[in-house]
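Entry 0007
Protein: YdbS-like PH domain-containing protein
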Amino acid sequence: MLGSMQAYHVRPRATLRPTTCASSKLCIPHIRSYSRTYQLRSPSERVLTKASTEDSTAAPAPAPPVETASASASASASTSGAADSTPEVVFYEGPGSNAELVLSLVLLPTLFYAPLSIASIGRRLWISFKFTNKRLVINNTSPLFKRTIEIAYKNIKEVRTGPRGFGLWGDMVVFLRDGSRIELTGLDKYKEIEEHINRCIYTL
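Output (C-alpha cells):
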C-alpha cells in the first residue's frame, strides 16, 4: 500500500517536470529571440523609430503665413506702378553748346583745331540731348550713324562732368551699372544737368 502511494506521488512529479521544463524551454528561446532582435537594431534605427512614432502621434505644424509675402509683393507692385504712372517731365532738351560751336568756327582755319571744329559742327547739327525725370535720350540724326540711345536713371551708377571753354560748356561721362559708360560732349548747363541726374538716381 505504501509502495503504491509512493509510486502515485512520484509519478505526478515525474510528469510535471517535463511539462515545466518543456514550457520553460519554449519560453526561454522566445525571450532570447526578442532580446536578440532588439539588440540587432542600431542606435540610429532606434532613434528613427522613436522619431517616427513621435511624429505620427504629434499634431501637424501650422502652415507658414502667406499673407505677409503677398502683402509685401502687392505693396512693391503698387509702388512700382505708382512710379511708372508718374508723368514724364522734360528737364532739358536741345543740341550741343552754342559757345562750343562759335569757338569751333573761329578756330576752323587753323590746321591744328580743324578736326575738332568739324566734329563740333557735326555734333551741333545732328546730335540732340533730352533729360527728363525718368531717363536721358541721345538722338543722333546723322545719315551715317543714325540711332537713338535711351538710358533709364535706375541703370545709371555715377555721373561725372568736366568744364570746357573756361566753363562755358562741359563734357559728361555716364557710368552704367553693367560696367559700360557713355560720353556726352559739349553740353550746356552741364552742372545743372549733373545735379538733376543725381537727384533722380537717389530718389528712384
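Curator remark: Confidence is low (pLDDT under 50) at residues 1-40, 47-55, 64-77. The two ends are 122 Å apart (CA to CA).
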